[in-house]
Specification:
Elements (H helix, E strand, L loop, with lengths): L11 E4 L2 E3 L12 E4 L11 E2 L3 E2 L6 E2 L5 E6 L20 H5 L7 E2 L6 E4 L7 E6 L5 E6 L7 E2 L6 E9 L2 E9 L2
Antiparallel strand pairs: 1-2, 3-7, 4-5, 6-7, 8-9, 9-12, 10-11, 10-13, 13-14
Length: 178
């Protein structure tokens, strides 16, 4: 199943048709080219069309095995990258980029028992903690967001913290150690 809502896709629904995934590459991968795609067999007019052909002037690349992919050169530093499906530019619409708040601060990280996060807005906020399959393991709201958040009951691993403040969404990984 190539849908971003499928648990195996590791994508997080940020709302408003925005999906997110955090990928960590080993240092040896810097400068290498990563092939990726949004969906299989439904590339849209800029990536490929029926019969695995590359759209003229599009951003699809034939991998030689009949697949149409996009490519990303792996950067040397932590980088947020935003792409629009069926568009050849990175986040062409300001409204897409504007819906995501960057740099959610979580500390300490990694942690074994609790963490805090910086709230950037003055409005009401809510947060969720999901495992890497996309399953929500904790939902937080109101006063619980401003203080220490206990995670001592969570298993060791990597989780995603999603903070929603009005129409703004911010996300950061949280590493739980035991």
């Amino acid at each position: 199943n190539w849908s971003p809502s499928d648990a195996n896709s590791a994508m997080t629904d940020m709302g408003n048709n925005i999906w997110s995934i955090a990928v960590t590459y080993p240092a040896a991968s810097v400068g290498a080219t990563q092939s990726y795609k949004f969906v299989n067999n439904d590339w849209g007019t800029n990536e490929g069309q029926t019969g695995s052909t590359i759209a003229p002037g599009g951003c699809g690349v034939d991998d030689g095995a009949g697949n149409i992919n996009r490519t990303l050169v792996i950067p040397a530093t932590n980088t947020e990258v935003c792409f629009v499906w069926d568009g050849c530019s990175a986040c062409g619409a300001a409204s897409v980029k504007g819906a995501v708040v960057n740099k959610l601060a979580i500390y300490p990280n990694p942690t074994s028992s609790s963490f805090r996060m910086d709230l950037t807005g003055n409005g009401s906020a809510s947060a969720s903690i999901t495992d890497l399959t996309g399953k929500v393991v904790r939902t937080l709201a109101g006063n619980s967001l401003g203080g220490e958040i206990s995670i001592s009951d969570l298993n060791a691993g990597v989780y995603m913290v999603t903070l929603t403040e009005g129409t703004k969404v911010s996300q950061a990984p949280l590493m739980v150690t035991k």
